């Protein structure tokens, strides 16, 4: 509340803070009016702590690489500038409407119709294609990071936001802790090399969430996630499991005569080894 009705100063512009749009451990996003031209913008204010500054630098690097693109055609949020104020790194963006997460929460039903889902997924696929061409992995695609531009004027027109976990495809590091858990790709869970393909996995999970009105893989742990993935998609191939840095957390070597070299640990075995109780079985539609 201390930020509402205060001002921010970039050196070249003064911003009057109108309201808080969102907040988290890293900082807050505020709705502002630029005094110079009275335009409404969103400003992401990131706390000056080493771990948060690293995220800010990552985001600015990714946004700088995308600056040359026509972001409206690419379905990506428009970034204007970065500045320092009140001990925060401030990123100025165009002001958008609301996230898909907020939009679904406001509706009587938490799912969308196929005719509503199709244009959203087409736009997000377009965004991911442009990110791929730019050599960037978003690494945090989820309902909260997809914004409706102006739902009353342009129904279901969306843009992707939040590049705080983004990285160059050529600099992807095995073992990176990225992607929100319900949208996390098997490569990340198992500790395998990864590419821009992990964003496509997240897109699939997001599409399912829009249709089902609930998360496809709502695991509280990565073991839950892997168990549900195996239940719906089958077990990852042996050559992938054998090279995963974290495979042994979820699978054990199978010395029986079964075709696979690996066997998923039972919920009881996982609980015995970790003290973490897995979720009850999730029943999927055939």
TrEMBL record:
Record GO terms (molecular function): ATP binding; protein serine/threonine kinase activity; protein tyrosine kinase activity
Binding residues annotated for ATP, in chain numbering: 44
Top-rank lineage group of the source organism: Eukaryota
Name this polypeptide is given: Protein kinase domain-containing protein
Keywords: ATP-binding, Kinase, Nucleotide-binding, Serine/threonine-protein kinase, Transferase
InterPro entries: Kinase-like_dom_sf (IPR011009), Prot_kinase_dom (IPR000719), Protein_kinase_ATP_BS (IPR017441), Ser/Thr_kinase_AS (IPR008271), Ser_Thr_dual-spec_kinase (IPR050494)
Stretches assigned to the Protein kinase domain: 15-286
SUPFAM superfamilies for this protein: Protein kinase-like (PK-like) (SSF56112)
Species name: Cynoglossus semilaevis
Protein family according to the UniProt entry: Belongs to the protein kinase superfamily.
An annotated GO cellular component: cytoplasm
Keyword field contains Flavoprotein: no
């Amino acid at each position: 509340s201390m930020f509402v009705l205060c001002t921010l100063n970039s050196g070249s512009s003064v911003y009057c803070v109108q309201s808080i749009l969102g907040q988290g451990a890293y900082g807050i996003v505020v709705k502002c009016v630029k005094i110079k031209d009275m335009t409404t913008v969103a400003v992401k204010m990131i706390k000056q702590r080493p771990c948060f500054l690293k995220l800010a630098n990552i985001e600015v690097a990714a946004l700088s690489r995308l600056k040359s693109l026509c972001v409206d055609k690419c379905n990506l949020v428009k970034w204007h500038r970065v500045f320092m104020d009140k001990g925060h790194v401030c990123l100025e963006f165009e002001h958008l409407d609301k996230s898909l997460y907020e939009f679904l929460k406001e509706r009587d039903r938490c799912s969308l119709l196929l005719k509503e889902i199709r244009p959203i997924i087409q736009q997000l696929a377009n965004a991911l294609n442009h990110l791929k061409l730019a050599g960037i992995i978003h690494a945090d695609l989820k309902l909260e990071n997809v914004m409706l531009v102006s739902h009353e004027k342009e129904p279901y027109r969306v843009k992707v936001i939040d590049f705080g976990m983004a990285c160059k495809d050529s600099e992807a590091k095995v073992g990176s802790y990225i992607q929100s858990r319900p949208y996390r790709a098997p490569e990340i869970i198992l500790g395998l090399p990864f590419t821009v393909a992990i964003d496509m996995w997240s897109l699939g999970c997001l599409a399912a969430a829009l249709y089902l009105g609930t998360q496809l893989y709502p695991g509280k742990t990565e073991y839950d996630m892997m168990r549900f993935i195996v239940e719906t998609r089958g077990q990852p191939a042996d050559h992938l499991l054998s090279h995963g840095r974290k495979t042994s957390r979820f699978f054990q070597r199978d010395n029986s005569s079964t075709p696979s070299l690996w066997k998923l640990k039972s919920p009881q075995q996982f609980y015995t080894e970790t003290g973490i109780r897995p979720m009850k079985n999730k029943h999927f539609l055939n």
